[in-house]
What does this fold into?
Amino acid sequence: MNAARPLDGLKVLVTGGSRGVGAAIVRRLVAEGAFPIIHYSSSMSHAESLLREIGGRGVLVRGDLSEEKAAERVWAEAVKATGRIDALVNNAGMRTEIAIDADMDDWRAAWRKEFQVNLFSAMDLSALAIRHFREIGGGRIINVSSVTAHRGYSGDTIAYGATKAALSNATKTIARNFAAEKIYSMAIAPGWISTEMGIAAAPSYGGEEAVLRGIPTGRMASPEEIAEMVAFTLRPSQIAMTGSTLDANNGTYAR
It folds into this structure.
């Protein structure tokens, strides 16, 4: 393994890869030698800008993961563009707020869309990845979960925490059942991250200052910190941690 480029030659599909944590993951992968397949939904300008930033060392695939069969199309396009995929990073996600006393049609719609994006599409991609990895001799699935998977969340965001809890559980199940085939699965569980999504959520918790007062380190995690953890889990040397969930919550929740 090249110490300076431990992911040299690895082809990695990153969902939600055009902005925020996803873009930071893409930059880190390129820095460590990997070739990213950058999935985006609607932010074509961000995706194209990111591809230029990394010197064109990657490809773009588009797909709205809130659509039932979008994951299959994304996977097919990614394989067609690169010939093989060595790892999948399920980073795409959404967070909605729906009050407990909301109209029941709105309640159900919010839950279904959040599960479709955060869980169902991720699992569709994971199933396709496992089949592909069996053909090429192994691979990795990294799921970006959340601290909310372990401690719960606010009353208006029950669906988000539920999707992330299911994603973390699926990570463990994949690891237990497919490690013998050299298919490894790990999860990262961030707390507050300094992204557009994180900042946008702060007013629901009393504002950014109130959020920071509740974090022992007094700061949110940076997207780059999460990206570094993702890259670490993809290193060929990191096999023993399969099935693990790595926490990154600045001390807000200890397990």
About this structure: Residues 142 and 186 are 5 Å apart (CA to CA). The chain has one domain: 11-195+222-248. The radius of gyration is 17 Å. The chain is about 45% helix and 15% strand.
